[in-house]
Protein backbone atom coordinates (compact mmCIF):
# COMPACT_ATOMS: atom_id res chain seq x y z
CA UNK A 1 0.00 0.00 0.00
CA UNK A 2 2.85 2.37 0.87
CA UNK A 3 4.45 1.78 -2.56
CA UNK A 4 1.13 2.22 -4.35
CA UNK A 5 0.63 5.60 -2.67
CA UNK A 6 4.20 6.66 -3.57
CA UNK A 7 3.65 5.57 -7.20
CA UNK A 8 0.35 7.44 -7.37
CA UNK A 9 1.86 10.65 -6.00
CA UNK A 10 4.91 10.55 -8.24
CA UNK A 11 2.70 9.89 -11.29
CA UNK A 12 0.73 13.03 -10.45
CA UNK A 13 3.91 15.10 -10.43
CA UNK A 14 5.06 13.80 -13.82
CA UNK A 15 1.67 14.50 -15.35
CA UNK A 16 2.22 18.24 -14.82
CA UNK A 17 5.34 18.13 -17.01
CA UNK A 18 3.83 16.19 -19.90
CA UNK A 19 5.64 16.32 -23.21
CA UNK A 20 4.11 15.86 -26.64
CA UNK A 21 6.17 15.61 -29.78
CA UNK A 22 5.84 15.14 -33.51
CA UNK A 23 8.18 14.82 -36.48
CA UNK A 24 6.99 16.29 -39.78
CA UNK A 25 8.44 16.30 -43.28
CA UNK A 26 8.20 18.68 -46.22
CA UNK A 27 9.61 18.07 -49.69
CA UNK A 28 10.59 20.72 -52.23
CA UNK A 29 11.17 19.59 -55.82
CA UNK A 30 14.09 21.16 -57.68
CA UNK A 31 13.82 21.78 -61.41
CA UNK A 32 16.99 21.95 -63.50
CA UNK A 33 16.47 25.72 -63.86
CA UNK A 34 17.07 26.27 -60.11
CA UNK A 35 20.74 27.15 -59.65
CA UNK A 36 20.62 28.64 -56.14
CA UNK A 37 18.79 28.02 -52.87
CA UNK A 38 18.44 30.65 -50.16
CA UNK A 39 17.00 30.10 -46.68
CA UNK A 40 15.10 32.54 -44.48
CA UNK A 41 14.17 30.24 -41.61
CA UNK A 42 12.99 31.26 -38.15
CA UNK A 43 15.26 29.94 -35.41
CA UNK A 44 18.18 27.55 -35.61
CA UNK A 45 18.42 24.88 -38.28
CA UNK A 46 20.98 22.47 -39.72
CA UNK A 47 21.74 21.69 -43.36
CA UNK A 48 23.06 18.30 -44.44
CA UNK A 49 24.01 17.21 -47.97
CA UNK A 50 22.32 14.10 -49.32
CA UNK A 51 22.34 12.21 -52.64
CA UNK A 52 18.69 13.01 -53.46
CA UNK A 53 17.47 15.46 -56.11
CA UNK A 54 14.90 17.29 -53.93
CA UNK A 55 15.12 19.26 -50.70
CA UNK A 56 13.72 17.51 -47.63
CA UNK A 57 12.87 19.32 -44.39
CA UNK A 58 12.53 17.29 -41.22
CA UNK A 59 11.06 19.20 -38.27
CA UNK A 60 10.89 17.77 -34.77
CA UNK A 61 8.62 19.67 -32.38
CA UNK A 62 8.42 19.05 -28.63
CA UNK A 63 5.98 20.89 -26.39
CA UNK A 64 6.13 20.70 -22.60
CA UNK A 65 3.05 21.38 -20.48
CA UNK A 66 0.79 21.05 -23.51
CA UNK A 67 -1.72 18.58 -24.88
CA UNK A 68 -1.62 16.70 -28.18
CA UNK A 69 -4.57 18.85 -29.33
CA UNK A 70 -2.47 22.01 -28.98
CA UNK A 71 0.37 20.50 -30.98
CA UNK A 72 -2.04 19.26 -33.64
CA UNK A 73 -3.50 22.78 -33.94
CA UNK A 74 -0.04 24.38 -34.30
CA UNK A 75 0.85 21.88 -37.03
CA UNK A 76 -2.47 22.47 -38.80
CA UNK A 77 -1.96 26.24 -39.01
CA UNK A 78 1.57 25.74 -40.40
CA UNK A 79 3.58 27.18 -37.49
CA UNK A 80 6.68 25.15 -38.46
CA UNK A 81 6.30 25.01 -42.27
CA UNK A 82 8.41 26.59 -44.97
CA UNK A 83 6.99 28.28 -48.05
CA UNK A 84 8.79 28.24 -51.37
CA UNK A 85 9.22 31.26 -53.60
CA UNK A 86 10.86 30.95 -57.01
CA UNK A 87 12.58 34.08 -58.27
CA UNK A 88 14.10 33.24 -61.64
CA UNK A 89 16.76 30.62 -60.96
CA UNK A 90 16.62 31.15 -57.17
CA UNK A 91 14.53 29.02 -54.83
CA UNK A 92 13.84 30.90 -51.61
CA UNK A 93 12.56 28.88 -48.64
CA UNK A 94 10.93 31.09 -46.02
CA UNK A 95 9.37 30.26 -42.66
CA UNK A 96 5.61 30.61 -42.90
CA UNK A 97 5.48 31.88 -39.32
CA UNK A 98 8.38 34.21 -38.52
CA UNK A 99 6.96 35.31 -35.20
CA UNK A 100 6.13 32.48 -32.87
CA UNK A 101 4.34 33.99 -29.88
CA UNK A 102 4.49 32.09 -26.60
CA UNK A 103 2.00 29.25 -26.25
CA UNK A 104 -0.25 29.87 -23.26
CA UNK A 105 -2.79 27.49 -21.77
CA UNK A 106 -4.94 27.48 -18.66
CA UNK A 107 -2.01 25.72 -16.94
CA UNK A 108 0.46 28.46 -17.89
CA UNK A 109 3.03 28.97 -20.62
CA UNK A 110 4.29 25.99 -22.61
CA UNK A 111 7.94 25.42 -23.41
CA UNK A 112 8.53 24.75 -27.13
CA UNK A 113 11.56 22.98 -28.61
CA UNK A 114 11.95 22.91 -32.41
CA UNK A 115 14.73 21.19 -34.36
CA UNK A 116 14.84 21.61 -38.13
CA UNK A 117 17.12 19.61 -40.40
CA UNK A 118 17.24 20.43 -44.08
CA UNK A 119 18.59 17.83 -46.52
CA UNK A 120 19.98 19.60 -49.57
CA UNK A 121 21.18 17.76 -52.72
CA UNK A 122 24.93 17.29 -52.44
CA UNK A 123 25.56 19.01 -55.79
CA UNK A 124 24.80 22.37 -54.10
CA UNK A 125 27.78 24.09 -52.48
CA UNK A 126 27.64 26.72 -49.71
CA UNK A 127 27.89 30.32 -50.84
CA UNK A 128 27.54 32.34 -47.66
CA UNK A 129 25.66 31.69 -44.44
CA UNK A 130 22.23 30.87 -45.84
CA UNK A 131 22.75 30.40 -49.59
CA UNK A 132 23.76 27.38 -51.67
CA UNK A 133 24.71 27.36 -55.35
CA UNK A 134 24.57 24.61 -57.97
CA UNK A 135 27.86 24.75 -59.91
CA UNK A 136 27.42 25.67 -63.57
CA UNK A 137 28.08 22.74 -65.90
CA UNK A 138 30.76 23.64 -68.46
CA UNK A 139 30.17 22.23 -71.97
CA UNK A 140 32.57 19.45 -73.00
CA UNK A 141 35.31 20.74 -75.34
CA UNK A 142 35.20 19.34 -78.87
CA UNK A 143 37.75 16.65 -79.75
CA UNK A 144 40.81 17.94 -81.67
CA UNK A 145 40.38 17.58 -85.42
CA UNK A 146 36.57 17.36 -85.18
CA UNK A 147 34.40 20.45 -85.54
CA UNK A 148 31.18 21.13 -83.59
CA UNK A 149 29.11 19.22 -86.18
CA UNK A 150 31.10 16.05 -85.54
CA UNK A 151 32.82 16.04 -88.96
CA UNK A 152 36.44 16.52 -89.83
CA UNK A 153 37.43 20.04 -90.86
CA UNK A 154 39.63 21.00 -93.85
CA UNK A 155 42.91 19.17 -93.73
CA UNK A 156 41.80 17.06 -90.77
CA UNK A 157 40.85 13.44 -90.63
CA UNK A 158 37.96 12.16 -88.55
CA UNK A 159 39.48 8.78 -87.64
Describe this structure in words.
- The protein has 159 residues and is an alpha+beta fold.
- It has one domain (18-133).
- The protein has 2 helices and 10 strands, in the order H-E-E-E-E-H-E-E-E-E-E-E.
- The strands form 2 sheets. Strands 1, 3, 4, 7 and 8 form a 5-stranded mixed beta sheet that branches. A 5-stranded mixed beta sheet has the order 5-6-2-10-9, with no helix packed on it.
- The longest helix is centred in the first third of the chain and has 15 residues, at 2-16.
- It is elongated.
- The protein starts with a helix and ends in a 26-residue tail after the last strand.
Number of strands: 10
Distance between the termini: 97 Å
Radius of gyration: 26 Å
Helix count from the secondary structure assignment: 2
Mean pLDDT across all amino acids: 84
For the sheet with most strands, the description reads: 5 strands, mixed
**Shape call:** elongated
Structural class: alpha+beta
Q: Helix-strand pattern, N to C?
A: HEEEEHEEEEEE
Write the layout of secondary structure elements.
Layout: H1 2-16, E1 19-29, E2 36-40, E3 46-50, E4 54-64, H2 68-76, E5 82-87, E6 90-95, E7 103-105, E8 108-121, E9 125-126, E10 131-133
Parallel strand pairs: 2-6, 3-8
Antiparallel strand pairs: 1-4, 2-10, 4-8, 5-6, 7-8, 9-10
Amino acid sequence: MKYFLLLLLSGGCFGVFAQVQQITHQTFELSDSITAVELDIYGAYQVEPWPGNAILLETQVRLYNASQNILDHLLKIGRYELEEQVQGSLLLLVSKDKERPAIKTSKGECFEEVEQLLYLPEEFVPEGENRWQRPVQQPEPASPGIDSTGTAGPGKTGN
